[in-house]
């Protein structure tokens, strides 16, 4: 399997590029700058749009609840650096398993995350689907999700095979099952819906809570928050 071929129409990337060493990049960048360092070049990104942010927020809540509940490791989201051999990327979402937490410092993750999620924007098509695809594959990211911010584009999921190459995951009847997050699954329609579904009720569905519990959660959500006292 080579690079990910399925993509929506890609306009020219709108990102400012600067040339500097990695050490200069560390001295220049601060926590308010959303940028990545790649082979001596710094890419400063355009601010994300609402749909992009909604998808990142939804997946962070859903995945975060699952990871924390089962104590699988650590879930992080941009801006947080994943330092690879020739780049310093800031994936939208990254997961580090318990076995690899020793590579995590307060500033960055040294080496590849176990799972990376990139929400693909109009200006990041080539970057996410080609450049990062190749980098993450080479670095050993075990699972890579590409979730397009355009709802008419189906998400793509890739597993690293025994030969160190990404191969597309099987999506059966609209359901994707993760290999890195044991027992986790999702419906692709959740990611292409015009409005994001409630992650709490979906978490209850994923972990198999009894139907009465799920109905109770839905009823509480419909009733709204209660005033104290």
Report what the structure shows.
With 229 residues, the protein is α+β, with helices and mostly antiparallel strands. The chain has one domain (16-223): Alpha-Beta Complex (tt1808, chain A). 30% of the residues lie in helices and 25% in strands. The chain has helices spanning 22-28, 50-70, 125-139, 189-192, 199-206, 211-223, and strands at residues 16-19, 35-38, 41-44, 73-77, 81-84, 87-89, 93-97, 108-110, 115-120, 143-148, 156-160, 166-168, 175-177, 185-187. The strands form 3 sheets. A 6-stranded mixed sheet has the order 1-3-2-6-5-8, with no helix packed on it. It has a 6-stranded mixed sheet with strand order 4-7-9-10-11-12, with helices on both faces. A hairpin with a 2-residue loop joins β5 and β6. α2 packs across α5 (199-206) and α5 runs antiparallel to α6. 33% of the residues are buried. The model is unreliable at 5-14 (pLDDT under 50).
